[in-house]
Amino acid sequence: MNKKHLTFIIIIVLVLALCIGGYFLINKNQNEDALKFKNEYESLNDTIRESDGAKYNNVNIDENNPIKYVTVKETIKLLESKKAIIYVGASWCPWCRNMLEPMLDVAKKLNIETIYYLNLDDEKSNYEIQNNELKQINKGSESYYELLDKLKDYLRDYELTDSNGKTYSTGEKRIYMPFFITVKNSGIVEAKGISRTLEEGETKYSEMTEKQYKDLYDNFYDTFSKIYLTSGTCNKNEECN
Fold first, then answer.
1. Could you tell me which of 182, 120, 121, 128 has the C-alpha nearest to residue 154?
2. Residue 16 pLDDT greater than 90, yes or no
3. To 5 degrees, how large is the angle CA 196–CA 197–CA 199?
């Protein structure tokens, strides 16, 4: 074997090693995020929410879930990607917790490997009503306002209502959780909230009924399949390939 052939073989081996190493690194990070997500949400099971004294509803999340944590800046870049599902939520949000099961079930059915997870707790602005006046408690980050601008056509106004029913406008838009952004071919397909509709006598902490589960499942299926399902691959009642 001459020197030229040996050099070529070494280069091929190094490239393969880098590809294999990169693959395992990506999967390692994905698995770490999946476990982090599971622990973050399950840690609140059977605990009391300080803001209203209610008990959080329990969630049980598979450690092999498709969740990958992203920052606001990474989310903005994802809006220009070929394909993406972005979930904006928080573990303390009751509405977020009670939609997890159908969301993850649909992701499993459609063989979705990644759902990007954005938590805005440390990025968003917050206001309070104090002495009949609207006060800004903290200002959002620069990236947060950039994201709001990107999504402005899909967002509701950020308003607060006091105990007397008076409404105060902050002059900002708001991402109300749980919120989902689906992207395909560098464009936003949908950006909307997905949560269950409460029946009479229920609260956001009530156990979900079979009908509510089905309604959410169908909503997620219709939303996710627009970007992850090719025509003829499968339907809601069949196995997907």
1. 182
2. no
3. 125
DSSP helix/strand/coil, 137: strand
pLDDT computed for residue 229 by the predictor: 75
Confirm whether pTM is higher than 0.90: no
- Decide yes or no: CATH 3.50.50.60 for domain 3-120+175-228: no
Sheet strands (E) in the chain: 67-69, 83-88, 115-118, 126-130, 133-138, 156-161, 167-174, 179-184, 187-193
91: three-class secondary structure by DSSP: coil
Is residue 88 within 8 A of residue 179, CB to CB? The reply is yes
Number of helices (H), then strands (E), in the chain: 6, 9
**Token pair for residue 11?**
């280069």
Question: What is the C-alpha to C-alpha distance for residues 176 and 170, in angstroms, rounded to an integer?
Answer: 14
d(CA 189, CA 202): 32
- Quote the CA–CA distance of 83 and 96 in Å, as a whole number: 23
Q: For 159-188, what is the mean pLDDT?
A: 96
Q: Helix, strand, or coil here: 21?
A: helix
pLDDT more than 70, % of the chain: 83
Query: Is the Cβ–Cβ distance between 206 and 77 less than 8 Å?
Result: no
Fill in the DSSP letter of residue 90. -
Distance CA 92, CA 82 (A): 31
Phi, psi of 197 (to 5 degrees): -95, 125
DSSP summary character for residue 48: B
> What phi and psi, each to the nearest 5 degrees, are found at residue 188?
-75, 125
